[in-house]
Amino acid sequence: MSAIRRLLTDGSGDFGWQDVDRLRYKAEGSAPFKDITRQVLFSQIDQTCELRYFEIAPGGYSTLEQHQHTHAVLILRGRGTVRIGTDVQPIAEHDLVTVDPLTWHQFHAAPDNALGFLCLVSKERDKPRLPTDEKRAMTSDSPGAVDPAAAG
Amino acid sequence: MSAIRRLLTDGSGDFGWQDVDRLRYKAEGSAPFKDITRQVLFSQIDQTCELRYFEIAPGGYSTLEQHQHTHAVLILRGRGTVRIGTDVQPIAEHDLVTVDPLTWHQFHAAPDNALGFLCLVSKERDKPRLPTDEKRAMTSDSPGAVDPAAAG
Fold this sequence. Notes:
homodimer; mainly beta; Jelly Rolls; eight-stranded antiparallel beta sheet; two-stranded antiparallel ribbon; 11 strands; about 45% strand
């Protein structure tokens, strides 16, 4: 249905929209991550893709993972870093991030700044693969310490 | 290929990105529009959708049109208005706009502000339909004067 859904401003600076649920990033305990939420902005019935918004609180991070599908990400808010393979780069508002298939990647919010990003994905996609348990333990406590090149 | 493409800042305030071409919105003369450009941000080989960025200079506007595919738009920059059917609403940064199939719609930048928006589309989609020539003449000179309900 045609609609305009406004950005909601609750004073916290966190992004939310009318009629958009703020969801868990993943089921608790399924993978290491910290302080991250997920919102599905567009999932049109006549499109095979979705546009999702992830928001990571200061100091938080997404799961270190890889998958067959490519990643297409636009940073919408704040700043942080992205790890792609063994490379860690700063990212800021409106940067575009592309991640190749089967490439380890992880997003971190800055210690003093949230990180919000759009992610374009196909509705049908393969499940992420995680590092081994040994590497997983390293990422959950000290996410900067893991070597993604060795993680798979 | 994995990459980070940065937002380029040239002092004008217009949005551009590394390795992203600024394209014509449409072929000149094919339809009425004013001061609008198009950039394809993501067109992944393993996805059937694209994420595009349109930027309208102050006072400019997109074509009044309709098509079978739905529209999924996120305002990335500035402010203006969107016409959906017979309704005209103000839009601002980060608003989400959904337009139903076969619904007349048109984006205008504010007179004193650019309007930039992301548009999620399927790579394969139907061509837009335009108002009749009579209505078209009305939109090109006085875009506020057309009655989209009568345009089809």
